[in-house]
Amino acid sequence: MAKMWITMGPQHPMTHGLWTLRVQVDGETVVDAEAELGYIHRGVEKIAEARDFTQVTPYCDRLCYVSAMTWSNSYIYAAEDLLEVEVPERAEYIRCISAECQRIASHLMWLGAYGPDVGNLTIMTWALREREMFLDLLQELGGSRMHYNYPRIGGVKRDIPPGWADRLIAKVKLFEKRIDEYEMLLDESTIFLVRLQGVGYATAENMVESGVSGPNVRASGVNYDVRWSHPYSVYDQLDWEPAVEKPTSVKGSDCYDRYRVRMEEMRMSCRMILDAIEKIPGGKNTTYSNGDEMIIAKAPTRAPAGATGFSNYECTRGASQFYVHGGGEGRGKNPYRLSIRSPMFITIPFVAETMIGYKVADIPAIMGSFDPCIGETDR
Amino acid sequence: MGMSISAEQNAAAVAAAVTASEEAWSALGVVAEAVNHSAGHGFAFLRLTVPAPHVLTVAKGLKHDMGVNYCSMVTGTHFPEGDEHRGWEVAYHLQRMPVINPDPNTSHVLVAGDLSGMSMPIEIEMLVPLPQGDDPRVPSVQSVWRGADWNEKETWDLVGIKFDGHENMFRVLNPHDSPEGFHPLQKQHKIRYHDFNEMYDDAQGFVRKPVDEGRVK
Questions:
Q1: Domain boundaries, position B192
Q2: Which of B181, B174, B186, B2 is CA-nearest to residue B89?
Q3: Number of structural domains chain B divides into
Q4: Which of B133, B148, B171 corresponds to the end of one domain?
Q5: One domain for residues B111 and B204
């Protein structure tokens, strides 16, 4: 049969955003695939050069609406590295808890989007229901439902509100039971297993070589995690270990392993949150006023030319990194250059390669299992 | 608790990497130093300043002798007002990740206490200054780390640094029909913002409002 190219996207349910996957097929089999990105490139890196360091945070929120808190945190760590700020420990704990809430919310969004991809509509309604619990908690901190603008250079915008800790603990404990329910729904669904098992193999070494990171690598049986290898925040004081899966094949992890590792990560995030909220300095039932030295430290607003800041942060989809040069406009008030490393920008071309050899019907299952997010990809 | 890599382990690994890099490449004019992050836990990383002609030699050495297997980020920066030898700079952020494929039905769990020497994860920053001019060029490391492929595409697309030997270079974020030589992160392209006098190159037809005339922040 003659080979032909099929264009999937930019409007296609498989893409989870706005991009194009071009696949060459021989009958039903994919023989070549390439990704075309850049449909929603907004030029955040250029915009940041005309904003001062604090004003960049909301743009970083909007890099990925599914995990805004982790992205703004990631930027904040780079800015703090540049401006040499010492952050109060209570603020670090609050950041850690809020980032883990966001990680759960992001994985739930992934689960809710992935279920319909592979023929399970029920999980979408279940996952989005629980996601709302965590968005409510984050809304109480940041004030809005998705884009929080919560972390500040030197700390956080405001302290946890009264009663928040109790609500958090209750919701997390409820959610831990709900994860078991998801597994009862999914792990016993033949359709779900048939679509996921045995497709989309990728080995750990191959992924690292290609620049993939995060849960996708941990699904291949390696516990590499930035929170573990280069601990930032308070991750070195908490009781947790990176979630890691045991792939069944020498060919590495399949879609099912990547689903499993995200479920385990949500469990681990719950464990971390429950541990951190008890250890928080100043007590979980205390609320310090805005600007208190317990939650925010004084930070300089200007950075000299030649200074650089770098952050390596475990975002929900892999390692997100920021690299900032000081000494921009306004006598160093703005970043001279802000560079963003998005995990999905590297992963999506890798997934396109991974699809070669599988059937066209497997494309949504493989693509979805890597958790694509186009906002952060195109920046 | 206690499972994360400690600052002492990290410092020792970076110090060993500095020694190894100095032994291997100091004759080539490569400067190696250990630098500490000022935020977080103050972890150290290895900073290499490499002359452009030796990028590929150093990259291969890092990959094959020091086990640096992960190229996470390539950043190009334009310094039109910098000195003659540093009109541009390419920064490679690399990592050593002690990753091996586990056998089926097992996982390869790294324990911080058991790691030492070459299996310790470290961060590496490789800076390559390029002279002033319209034609910044650096050898491509695409053949060394596959992860550098799309990072280099992006750096060429946005900053205009040419990667010699890069196969299959094309625009990834800008439209495919962008004018040749248009790279938006170069500093001659200004962004319009509130009271600044500097304007866009006026690609979208922005003009300065009369009421703002003469106002400088």
A1: 187-217
A2: B186
A3: 2
A4: B133
A5: no
Residue range A197-222: mean pLDDT, rounded:
88
* 3 state SS of A69: helix
Length of chain A: 379
In a domain, B57, yes or no: yes
Task: Answer yes or no: is A126 within a domain.
Answer: yes
Q: How far is A297 from chain B (nearest CA, A)?
A: 13
> Do B55 and B85 contact (CB within 8 A), yes or no?
no
CATH number of the domain at A178, please. 1.10.645.10
Which among B41, B95, B102 has CB closest to A222? B102
pTM of the model: 0.88
Which one, of B46, B121, B136, lies nearest residue B86 by Cα? B136
Region B82-86: mean pLDDT is 84
Residues B208 and B124 in one domain: no
Q: How far is A157 from chain B (nearest CA, A)?
A: 18
Q: Amino acid identity of A155?
A: G
Higher pLDDT, residue B100 or A56? A56
Residue A291 counted as domain residue = yes
Q: What is the DSSP string of A224-261?
A: --HHHHS--TTGGGSS--------SBTTBB-HHHHHHH
Q: What is the pLDDT of residues A58-76, one digit of tens each?
A: 999 988 888 899 999 999 9
DSSP code of residue B5: P
Instruction: Give the pLDDT score at B199.
Output: 45
Contact by Cβ (8 Å): A192, A186: yes
Task: Mark whether B205 and B128 lie in a shared domain.
Answer: no
Within an 8 Å CB–CB cutoff, is residue A121 touching chain B?
no
Percentage of chain B exceeding pLDDT 70: 87
Mean pLDDT across A73-96: 91
ipTM of the complex: 0.85
Tell whether A113 lies on the interface with B, counting CB pairs under 8 A.
no
